[in-house]
Structure formats: C-alpha cells, structure tokens
Amino acid sequence: MARRVEHGELLQWPPALVAGVDCAFPEGGARTRAAAVLYRFPQLECVAETTAERDTVLPYIPGLLSFRELPAILDALDALPEAPDVVLCDGQGIAHPRRFGVACHLGVETGLPTVGVGKKRLCGEHKEPGHEKGSTESLIDQGEKIGMVVRTRTSVRPLYVSVGHRVNLDTAVELVLACTTRYRMPEPIRAADRAAAQSSARCSR
Fold it and tell me: Which listed CATH number (2.30.30.40, 3.40.50.2000, 3.30.2170.10, 3.40.50.300) goes with 13-115+165-196?
C-alpha cells in the first residue's frame, strides 16, 4: 500500500476547505470514536464537525495504528456536508518506519490530499530547529528526507510534518503553519481532538 502514495502539488492552492481528523478510544479501547472538522481556509472559519463511533476491531499494534483508526475516520469524513480539499491528520504520513502512517492510509483509501502532523518522532534523525515560530529542520531516515520538523510556536516543542498523499512537503509545511494560531497544533486538528474526546461534536460558528 505504501507504493500507492503519490507525492505532488495540491491541485488547488490555496485550498478552500481544510479538514482535521483525530481519534479517541473510549470504554477502555473497546470503542473507536473519530472526529472530522471542516474549516474554511484561510479564514479558519469552522464549517462543520462530525463524529462517528464503531466497535474497535483491532488491538493496538505498534506501527499499524491506522488500521485501527481508519474505519471510524472514514465514517466521520463521509458525514461532512462537503468534501475537503485537503485533510490534516493527527499522526504521521511517510515519516513512519513503513512509510505508511495514518495520513498515507487515509489518502490512498479516499484519494484526498492528506498531510501527517505528528507530535512525536517515530523514526529518523534531525537537528533542533530554531526557537522562533516557522523554524524548520529536515527529518532524515536512512539517507531519505521523510519530513520536516516544524516549530509552530516560539520556544514550544516542534511538530513532525510529512507527506500523506497527493501533496508535496513544502506545501504541507506551509499549510500547517497557516492553520496554526495560538497553540502548538493546527486548529482543524485541535478541534477534531476535542470532538473525538466528547460524545458529540460542537462547531462554533
């Protein structure tokens, strides 16, 4: 499946609609709850939020988390009133030991452009980026550039941004920074994280 990942420029820049997706596992992991939050870009105006729940069908297996999360994420995305132009995923893209994190899996399954935004490094080495917001360093694994380490807030721990599907790395970094305001995580992912942690979605308009 990793061989089906496409690298390339977004078909539309700037995108009109950006979605963020995230998952939670309530009831001790017996259930999977996913959220998808749709934003108008570049205004970062919330358009819609959806959540979807399923029984968790797979145990946690390191490196294969996307297979556990994806069914509920697909349900949440399908419930949005409009399809996004690009999806920001709370997790890795190709910055993954198998070069196939959740952002890649979602992109390959749906055909949507996707970007991986990880809070922790799964693989690769990098220098520490500068302390100012917007500072970046390359994430390298076995001689391959697999992502960028991006400081989204001054003097706050950086994020690991990588290609998911049908987007290039420079555009992925630009999009993540444009969607980040007062907090470390981009706003669409922050909203999806909040919605997934609750039993219902709440969109502030």
Answer: 3.30.2170.10
Which residues, in sequence order, are bridge partners of residue 36?
21, 50
Span 86-142, pLDDT tens digits:
999 999 999 999 999 999 999 999 999 999 999 999 999 999 999 999 999 999 999
90 torsion bin: left (phi>0), alpha (psi -120 to 50), beta (else): beta
d(CA 176, CA 12): 16
| pTM: predicted TM-score of the whole model, two decimal places | 0.94
Structure tokens at 140: 């390298």
